Amino acid sequence: MSSAADVTPAGRVSGIDKIERRRIALAESALKTLGELGYARTSLREIANNSEFTHGVVHYYFRDKIDLISYCVRYYKTKCAQRYDEVVETATTPDELGAGFLAKMTQTLVEETAMHRLWYDLRAQSMFEEQLRADVVAIDQLLEEMIWRILSRYAELLGAKPSVDAATAYALMDGLFEQAVVAFADDPTGAPERLVQRVGQVLPKLITT
Amino acid sequence: MSSAADVTPAGRVSGIDKIERRRIALAESALKTLGELGYARTSLREIANNSEFTHGVVHYYFRDKIDLISYCVRYYKTKCAQRYDEVVETATTPDELGAGFLAKMTQTLVEETAMHRLWYDLRAQSMFEEQLRADVVAIDQLLEEMIWRILSRYAELLGAKPSVDAATAYALMDGLFEQAVVAFADDPTGAPERLVQRVGQVLPKLITT
DNA sequence: GCAAAGTCTTGACGACTGTCAAAGAACGGG
DNA sequence: CCCGTTCTTTGACAGTCGTCAAGACTTTGC
Prior knowledge:
homodimer, mainly alpha, Arc Repressor Mutant, subunit A, Tetracycline Repressor, domain 2, 2 domains, two-stranded antiparallel ribbon, 10 helices, elongated, disordered N terminus, DNA-binding (chains A, B), repressor (chains A, B), TetR family transcriptional regulator (chains A, B), DNA binding (chains A, B)
């Protein structure tokens, strides 16, 4: 498992980078705990216990709990942004793009279940805690753009055009994905296959030839 | 404001009914607080404070916190089940059904924002707390059937058939609605209109003439 | 009208939370 | 090597949480 807190080849890190690396290391550890327990049940002490640090260190690098969570969310954002970009860039046929998209979708559903659970949790929490709202909105925007890149490229390869706007397309795909995440949490059996079947059902309806 | 704990005209209530009425009154009060604060920030004392009862009463009628929340969820379920049934039964043309559906959808978005926020919160929590899972799954099932009644009736009035299965249709509609609820929580301006526009965009694509 | 059952209030408990401050360790420049 | 800065540990704080129990009040059955 690679850590983002690796030192440079020179063995030294500049001061500002060092504290940034600590923050990243803490965020990664916190995300692991958050994904396991959810926002409500995760305490700073629990985060510290599941890491190599003590609970005092957390407060040395983050002003308070919201600051930490907020940082985690922003850090997480950078990871899921370009998850599908490779598929979009390499696919040369509609089928290839569709298959690649579905494959990546089920892969992330299975391999990063905890992160997705956490995302839907945090999005719900943002409706009650306005301090989370800005970060959540930003991630939603990012995901919407990602879906739009896929859909418009898919239409382009078919010599067609998307028949819905970006926000609608994202809401539809997200609805299917969240359903799969909830179902997967309840019983992993068959959830990925059902997701593939349903997305495959819907995707052709979102373009006009 | 009518309470579900009204006494019968005779002024007496049977023993079993009385405790059931208390539970309902407590659940309604709890739902108000839950919708305002969300699952994580709602304590039993807060529920009691926002009601006419003391915190001891809560524990007299409910074994523990999960028992109360679970009861609230089941109680809430019965209210949203037949929300759209009237529209389905009275509409005689596709446009009438579509318009009625959209009108009810935006109405409940605006008037019952808190309840919807709570629902998406609880569904997310159910992925971490398995005690909530059964109730959440039951409600999801109910909502899926509701959407299916609308869509299949809509298709019927058009002399057509739905082009997606019930689970897919529900996931799509739910994705659009959740997007609207989140957007509405952030900024109520225009969210209902955007929801109408998007659902109107999608609905025709879910049937094959 | 009295005893028994049911209902409610009050106060307490142990555990947990976020936050902070003071003491200690590690480190780097002089 | 030593001293000042940076980092870390530890322990404590005030508050809140869910839970429970002992007693007071109310209703019911006879």
